[in-house]
Every structure is written in C-alpha cells, then in structure tokens.
Amino acid sequence: MAVERYLQNAISDWMCDDGPESDIVISSRVRIARNLKDHPFPLLATDSQANAVINKVSETIINGKMKQIGNFDLILLEDLNDLQKKVLVEKHLISLNLANESRKGAVTLSENEAISIMINEEDHIRIQCLYPGLQINQAWEMANKIDDILEKDLDYAFDEKRGYLTSCPTNVGTGIRASVMVHLPALVLTNQMNRLVPAITQVGLTVRGIYGEGSEALGNLFQISNQITLGQSEEDIIRNLHGVVNQIIELERQSRRNLVEEKRFQIEDKVGRAYGILSNAKIIDSKEAAQRLSDLRLGIDLKMIKGISASVVNELMVMTQPGFLQYIANEILTPEERDIRRATIIRKKLLEIK
C-alpha cells in the first residue's frame, strides 16, 4: 500500500536538511486553494461528484505535466484507518479537515513529502509546499509553479473582480496562505508573546498552534501566517510575512542573548533538567514531553548541549505524538500506555546518540 512509506518514518526527507535561520524557523509553508469551475464545492458535493473531482485532479497530477516536478502517490482517505490519518496530520501532510472528510477526500504526496496536494478538503485543491528553515520565497515559487502546471489542464473557478473563488470567504482572491513554524522559547520565557501576538495581528498576520487554526502552541512552537488573501498580491503577502518573521527572529535571538547574559545558570539548569527528565523518565505525557523537548532544543541552539542535533528533537516531536505512538505499536493505547511508551521512545533515542 502506497501510504505505508509515508507512515514509517517520523521525519520527512525534506526535514533532514537545515534551512536558513533554522535555529528559530522550523519550516516554511505555502498553501494555495483552488476550485474547479462548474463543480460544487466539496462541502456540497455528492459522493459521485467528489469522486469525479478526485479522478480528474489526480489524473492530471500523476500522469500529466506534473511529472516534471516528480513522482506522486495517490492516497484515498477512505482507504485509511483513523491512526493512519492521524499520523499524516501529525506529519503535516494532510489537514485535520481532510482527515475528517474520509468519505470523499484524497491526497497526492511527493516522494520526499515536501509537496502535498489535498483533494476535496474545504476546496477541491489545496497545494502545499514545505521547506526547512526560512524559505518562504522558495516555497511560494514551487507552489506557484505547480499551480501554473495544473491550471493548464484544469479549469479553475475564477472571477475577474474577486479572483480565485473558494469555499471560505477568507481565502477568496489569491487563495494563498503562507506560514512559518517558529520556535520561540525565549520570548515565552520573558513574557513577550502576550504583547507580540496583538502586534502581529495588526499587520494582517495571525498566530496559531502547530496544527493551525484552533490548535495549541505546544513546545513553544507557533505558526505565523497571513490572514487576508483578497486585495493583496501574492508577492505582497510573502513580502509582508517575510519581513515580520525577520523581526521576530531578531527579537527571539536578542531575548536568548539576554537570558544567557542575565540568567545563564537558570537557563543551564532548565536545559539540564529537561535532558535529565527526558533521559530517565518512565512516564511522560505529551504536553510535558513537548515542553522538555523545547527546552532541550534551546540548549542545543545555545551550545549548552553537545552531540545532539536539532533534527533529533524534530523527529522526537513527531514520534511522541499520540497517532504515531499507536501506529508503531499497532494498537490503540490508553493515555497511560501512551505516556509510558512515549518516555521509552525518548529514552532509547537519547541513549542511541549518547
């Protein structure tokens, strides 16, 4: 089954490389929403209408001019069980919305998992491109290239005044949603996030948790993205996000420098305690694991921890999620069983690289 190759490893191939500003920016993502002309939106479509969209779009992706980009696998959500869908969500390969639309949803994935094209999510097509570090321009260029290829063979729903038509009014216009995942432990520790979030909102951006809208910012990880797609060009959206993120990077770095200068022993203690707990705990829940891994990552970035790479922390963040834990166990686990298995996985991983 094609999906198995995307479930076996917690870390995607594209995540193995360090990108620019990777000590703070985990990843850059651009998502483009598109719909087909003369086809009802997915929320209103019958099963037969939804299947027609899947067939049309997937045929274009797999056997059309998209071959110049690479090879793609088609995965039908109705063929997956709940754990498999959960793992794909935890790896950011599909959205929560698509996972809940198993009756008529699908996704095509590139071999390195950097490109995910969701079919029949909220819109007929959701093109998603992921890059490590701060590479939002590169993610946009790739998403735009894919969009141009698909538009040659698919008739998009488009209005001369409003732009690309989407199911949700907030996506009408360019249909683009650009975001970066950032690790901001110093801004959280210095209580600056409470002031920063409203300031970010005032410039047309929004701050969310690691799985997007409505999700929690576990492990000091935040997703910053544009709110508005109508009335702005794609280039303006990317430029605005890039500029704001650069300012946030500098604020985080300055906060880290201040913490090291003013509270070095406290930070070293925090990092050391995190490593000690992660290396020895017999049971740990997901929230504590995320926080301790965040502290460990901060220690790695500040050169307080030697011999452990940031990519190991990235991998553990996915490996210790509920879906992945249960998938590799091949069974449904109780919360306590998950907490025990989570602690075991972390201990073994850290022991391997000791």
TrEMBL record:
Keyword Repeat: no
Binding site for ATP: 27-31, 92, 126, 177-181, 208-213
Entry annotated with the keyword Kinase: yes
EC numbers for this chain: 2.7.14.1
Pfam name, any one: ATP-gua_Ptrans
Keywords recorded for this protein, A-Z: Allosteric enzyme, ATP-binding, Kinase, Nucleotide-binding, Transferase
Domain of life, source organism: Bacteria
Chain ranges of the Phosphagen kinase C-terminal domain: 24-255
Catalyses which reaction(s): L-arginyl-[protein] + ATP = N(omega)-phospho-L-arginyl-[protein] + ADP + H(+)
GO cellular component: extracellular space
Motif RDXXRA motif of the pArg binding pocket involved in allosteric regulation per record, residues: 338-343
Any single biological process term in GO: phosphocreatine biosynthetic process
Protein role: Catalyzes the specific phosphorylation of arginine residues in a large number of proteins. Is part of the bacterial stress response system. Protein arginine phosphorylation has a physiologically important role and is involved in the regulation of many critical cellular processes, such as protein homeostasis, motility, competence, and stringent and stress responses, by regulating gene expression and protein activity.
Family per similarity comment: Belongs to the ATP:guanido phosphotransferase family.
Record protein name field: Protein-arginine kinase
